[in-house]
Amino acid sequence: MPELPETETIARDLDRAISGSRITDVRVKRSDVLREVDPRQLRRRVVGTIIQRAWRRAKLIVLDLSSGDRIVVQPRFTGALLIDTGRLADAERRYSTIEFVLENTRSLHYRDIRRLGTVTVMDDRRFAGYSGSLGYEPLDSGFTIERLSVILRSSRQAVKRVLMDQRRIVGVGNIYANEVLWRGGIDPSRPASTLSADEVARLHGELRDVLESAVRARGTSFRDYRDASGERGSFANQLQAYGREGERCDRCGRRLVATHAIDGRSTVFCWGCQR
Q1: How far apart are alpha carbons 250 and 144 in whole angstroms?
Q2: Which residues does 151 contact at the CB level (< 8 Å), separation at least 6?
Q3: CA-to-CA distance for 142 and 144, rounded, in angstroms?
Q4: Which of 102, 101, 103, 81 has its CA nearest to residue 92?
Q5: In the predicted model, what is the mean pLDDT of residues 122-131?
Q6: How far apart are CA 4 and CA 235, in angstroms?
């Protein structure tokens, strides 16, 4: 699933490439990805509008329109927003669910192989309510060590679950939660409220550093994630925990292990040096 670094990469690419472009047509090929609007409503609300800005909120990609509406895309597992200048690979175009036709003979495809992602249109009030139900952005200046401490102290759930709870902190999924906790030397199963002040500060630093590094690497690609040009991210080359079960820990040399006991997802960690 695209997490903060992947959706941030896509949003930045789109903002550079299509801000100021007019939507001249919409072709809905698979309407089951639509939420809150049907194909006719989607067409009525977006055709003729200008894309003023592309940006990210949590794991969402948001396109601000000149009408005041927003196109809100949640890619989930296999979704991607791909710019097509006429040279998009057939393999990508085959899974296009919605095509936003732009002026200057370009299109923006929402490609989703498994069609688990969603596309909707929201007005200001609807988007404000939706966004308000989400947690803090971990790369914002207001996300301080003290703010993280308050979040962790209020829960006895496993610290990994708290990091991934989008009502508390947004954008962090399984890949980056594994990585941040390994780098912080913290057992993913520890109750969040048991972390010391030093551990909270270390976790805060590692969280921001990992996410910022992943954004610079344009995200992590294992299978389906592609940026807006259809290219893969390179942060997988820097991972020291996720996907490395059975390999030696880069810090202490013990073998990394994997469990599904914490949250039903693969948690990779080191018995020796994560405490």
Answers
A1: 29
A2: 136, 162, 168, 169, 192
A3: 6
A4: 81
A5: 97
A6: 13
Of 118, 59, 212, 187, the residue nearest 195 (C-alpha)? 187
State the Cα–Cα distance between residues 72 and 64, nearest whole angstrom: 9
What residues does 101 pair with on adjacent strands? 25, 107
H or E element, residue 82: strand 79-84
Active site residues: 2-3, 59, 265
Mind listing the pLDDT tens digit for each residue in 211-223? 999 999 999 977 6
Mean pLDDT of 174-180: 97
More confident residue, 91 or 163: 163
Q: Sketch out the chain's domains with CATH numbers.
A: 4-132 (3.20.190.10), 145-269 (1.10.8.50)
pLDDT given for residue 91 in this prediction: 83
Query: Other CB atoms closer than 10 Å to residue 81's CB: what's the count?
Result: 28
Can you tell me the distance from the alpha carbon of 130 to that of 169, in angstroms, rounded to the nearest whole number? 15
What pTM, to 2 d.p., does this model score? 0.93
Q: Which residues pair with 55 in a beta bridge?
A: 62
d(CA 100, CA 227) in angstroms, rounded, equals 17
The DSSP result for 183-194, as a single string, is HHT--TTSBGGG
10 Å CB burial of residue 275 (0-12, 13-18, 19+) is exposed
CB atoms within 10 A of CB 248: 12
Kindly tell me if the per-residue pLDDT of 16 is higher than 80. yes
pLDDT score of 225: 77
Q: Is 89 helix (H, G, I), strand (E, B) or coil?
A: coil
Residues in the chain: 275
Q: Cα separation of 138 and 106, whole Å?
A: 34
Q: What is the distance between the alpha carbons of residues 184 and 270, in angstroms, rounded to a whole number?
A: 11
User: In degrees rounded to 5, what are phi and psi of residue 161?
Assistant: -65, -40
Higher pLDDT, 170 or 90: 170
